[in-house]
């Protein structure tokens, strides 16, 4: 007997299928550069220096038609320290920012997506 453990994701949702070797596979499409993934779309991301983040680097999160409550930031192979003042600036826009390593961000995004949460993930490839 076998069990299908594929998460139930509504049609059209952006599911991260794999990450590593400098790329992501998201809903059967490969990306070899940083991306921001939303439930409905994936866009190119130019993060700049994440040790000194800017609101401009995350502007697509605030400009999207679908509001986001949680922004996961996959910083690469390790979690980077995001300055509290920047986290507070993001929070004032109604978004909770959660930095973590990219692998953790990918897995967490998929779980939150299946829960129908309003989530996005800004991801640096590993």
Describe the protein in words.
- With 126 residues, this protein is α/β, with parallel strands linked by helices.
- Helices cover 21% and strands 26% of the residues.
- A five-stranded mixed sheet has the order 5-4-8-6-7, with helices on both faces. The protein has a three-stranded antiparallel sheet with strand order 1-2-3, with helices on one face.
- The chain is globular.
- It has helices at residues 59-63, 84-92, 102-114, and strands at 16-20, 23-26, 29-31, 35-37, 42-44, 70-74, 96-100, 119-123.
- The protein contains three helices and eight strands.
- Strand 6 (70-74), helix 2 (84-92) and strand 7 form a beta-alpha-beta unit.
Q: Quick one: how many beta strands?
A: 8
Oligomer: single chain
Gross morphology is: globular
Strand adjacency order, main sheet? 5-4-8-6-7
Main pleated-sheet profile: 5 strands, mixed
Computed structural class: alpha/beta
Pick out the low-confidence regions. Answer: none
Q: How far apart are the termini? A: 36 Å
- Our Rg estimate from Cα atoms comes to 14 Å
Overall pLDDT, averaged?
Answer: 92
Percent of residues in beta strands: 25-35%
Number of helices: 3
The helix content, as a percent range, equals: 10-25%
Please write the string of helix (H) and strand (E) elements.
EEEEEHEHEHE
Task: Give a brief outline of the structure.
This protein is an alpha/beta fold and 126 residues long. It contains three helices and eight strands. The strands form two sheets. It has a five-stranded mixed sheet, with helices on both faces. Strands 1-2-3 form a three-stranded antiparallel sheet, with helices on one face.
């Amino acid at each position: 007997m076998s069990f299908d453990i594929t998460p139930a994701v509504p049609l059209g949702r952006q599911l991260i299928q794999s990450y590593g070797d400098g790329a992501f596979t998201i809903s059967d499409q490969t990306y070899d550069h940083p991306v921001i993934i939303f439930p409905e779309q994936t866009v190119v991301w130019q993060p700049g220096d994440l040790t000194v983040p800017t609101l401009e680097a995350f502007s697509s999160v605030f400009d999207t038609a679908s509001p986001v409550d949680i922004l996961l930031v996959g910083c690469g192979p390790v979690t980077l320290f995001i300055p509290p003042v920047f986290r507070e600036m993001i929070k004032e826009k109604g978004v909770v920012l959660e930095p973590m390593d990219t692998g953790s961000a990918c897995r967490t995004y998929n779980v939150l997506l299946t829960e129908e949460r309003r989530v996005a993930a800004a991801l640096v490839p590993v």
